[in-house]
Amino acid sequence: MQIKDSIPNLQYMITRILEAQAKTLAKQYPVLTIVGPRQSGKSTLCSLAFPKLPIVNLELPDLRARISADPRAFIASHQNGVIIDEIQYLPELTSYIQVAADDRKRNGEFILTGSRQFQLMQSVSQSLAGRTAILRLLPLSLAELSPTKYQARSLNEQIFTGGYPRIIVEGLNPSQAISFYVQTYIERDVRQIINIRDLSLFERFLRLCAARSGQLLNSTNLGNETGVNQSTIREWLSVLETSFIISRVQPHHNNLSKRITKSPKIYFLDTGLLCYLLGITTPQHLEFHPLRGEIIETFVASELIKAIYNSGKNDPIYFFRDSAGHEVDFLIDRGRAVQPIEVKASTTFNSEFMNGLKYYASQKGAEVINPTVIYTGTEEFKIEGTSVVSIQKSGEVFTNE
């Protein structure tokens, strides 16, 4: 009972940074779990990292039914390891995997993937605690694209296209491909997780969220504009977050004044999807879009989060904003201190870009290292202790501690 997904021609493959982490952790744990959004490349990563293992895709209803009918026989038939794709469709299988892992005591035998973080984490935490390593794979980052022939010709094109591998490798029309993605994945998955009677309401909610990417989240306002109550808004936001569509970035207030804002900011994790939901139809439309600043900030947020996940970590990023209007776009908690990062949608550096960084550093309780300005220009330098970095190197800001 084995199904091996076809692997695209290797000459078109883009090396994923997470592959090295996956190989290392598979040698240390009996189970490796890789989660991420639909079509982010989880199956391809597993195929390339573990080419000797067969892949079983639980999205196939008939195969899922056969495994569900006799899970012990399925586990017994894979004595040499197996990749199980979309494990959230059969969460009870993790209990049988636990027993097999404890009996066999061999690392790297079970490689699991899933695209619904909440459901998957429930079953993993209950059955596989201490037996599995967990990695998160998001769409392609600039660091993964830059050494390949698929690197975009411009920042606007990169933002418009997004990072979903199939769109990039096959040269698909991003707007069209993402419209299909929304219909066949987001709406389908959402309907399987929660009962939505009116999909047009949820689509309106999606577009309203897109218009708020890079901004403070006001759930009351969002509910009023969508036409649903607060509990529904909370539930829908949770679904988007656990499906890796958005990330909520929380305010950082460690040892600082309580006058800071309490509301999180919302960011889409793929700018191609964001552009589609905002009605942006060409890269050129980005140049003078009224939300260009927020879109650029979203792009940087996505790159930072990808860099964190690709390093095998799950460290959150934060932001700072107080009641007087002082703010810093991102804060990376380095343990002993915090790295503040300011993002500017400008190709020309201005010393005023550092004002928020300087204010934050002056606050009581703030221990700051390597303050950084990320902008859309190409020159990189240091000024007054602040690193000025091109947006093309956004992910490196995290890795270059």
Helix and strand topology:
Layout: H1 18-26, E1 31-35, H2 42-49, E2 55-57, H3 61-69, H4 71-76, E3 82-85, H5 93-104, E4 110-114, H6 117-127, E5 132-136, H7 142-145, H8 155-161, H9 165-169, H10 174-193, H11 199-210, E6 215-216, H12 219-226, H13 230-242, E7 246-251, E8 265-268, H14 271-277, H15 292-310, E9 317-321, E10 327-333, E11 338-344, H16 355-362, E12 372-375, E13 381-383, E14 386-390, H17 396-399
Parallel strand pairs: 1-4, 1-5, 2-3, 3-4, 7-9, 11-12, 12-14
Antiparallel strand pairs: 6-8, 7-8, 9-10, 10-11, 13-14
What does this structure look like?
By secondary structure, the chain is an alpha/beta fold. The protein folds into 2 domains: 10-136, 3-Layer(aba) Sandwich (Rossmann fold), CATH 3.40.50; 142-399, no CATH class. 40% of the residues lie in helices and 16% in strands. It has helices at 18-26, 42-49, 61-69, 71-76, 93-104, 117-127, 142-145, 155-161, 165-169, 174-193, 199-210, 219-226, 230-242, 271-277, 292-310, 355-362, 396-399; strands spanning 31-35, 55-57, 82-85, 110-114, 132-136, 215-216, 246-251, 265-268, 317-321, 327-333, 338-344, 372-375, 381-383, 386-390. The strands form 2 sheets. The chain has a 9-stranded mixed sheet with strand order 6-8-7-9-10-11-12-14-13, with helices on both faces. Strands 2-3-4-1-5 form a 5-stranded parallel sheet, with helices on both faces. Strand 9 and strand 10 form a beta hairpin. The model is unreliable at 1-11 (pLDDT under 50).
